[in-house]
């Protein structure tokens, strides 16, 4: 079958061009940029080898010479948008918590710019050039944390996983809100009124106490920062 290798293959280990012969008509960056444009405009389900080939103006079978599998195309896309991180150069700040919070905010912004990203994220894509650049930077930021490097790597993974879950929920809620026949505020008011009625019955005393002590949600930015700060607190 076209595009299927006999053995697992890492796209980054595959030469972008052969040592001999003419220069390829397209680079991996060209292919990734075309796929990202399609996904940003029409969603990840619109990304296909045929569609990307059409965007580039080449034949679908020709594209397989550059990208053997659709999974490789996804990996190129994830790496391309990972290059959007703004990583400070030079020595890391002594405030590793503030630095990790800033990086977490960048990840959230990145995923909201490219809402298809959480759909295709995979730990298998964590070894692309821009992913390695990001990981090395994060480990440098965490020099001030008194913990083994393995623990620091776990912290980075937990931050990224928490951000991805948060953004996925944001995107899903926004999608549901667009489908409502009335405002999201009216929907929330109806649900909160129902919850208040259930708690008022006395059947849920622990939940009643929890709701008394739970801070007001605030806006999404405040909630996001609180979530990440509590995660960082657990490693501090």
Give an account of the 3D structure.
There is one protein chain. The longest helix has about 30 residues, at about 150-180. The protein folds into two domains: about 10-80, Homeodomain-like (Arc Repressor Mutant, subunit A); about 95-235, Tetracycline Repressor, domain 2, CATH 1.10.357.10. It is built from eleven helices and no strands. About 20% of the residues are buried. It is mainly α and about 240 residues long. Helix 8 (about 150-180) runs antiparallel to helix 11. It is about 65% helix and about 0% strand.
Topology:
Layout: H1 28-42, H2 49-56, H3 60-63, H4 70-82, H5 96-113, H6 117-120, H7 129-141, H8 149-179, H9 184-200, H10 205-213, H11 220-235
Helix pairs in contact: 1-2, 1-4, 5-8, 5-11, 8-11
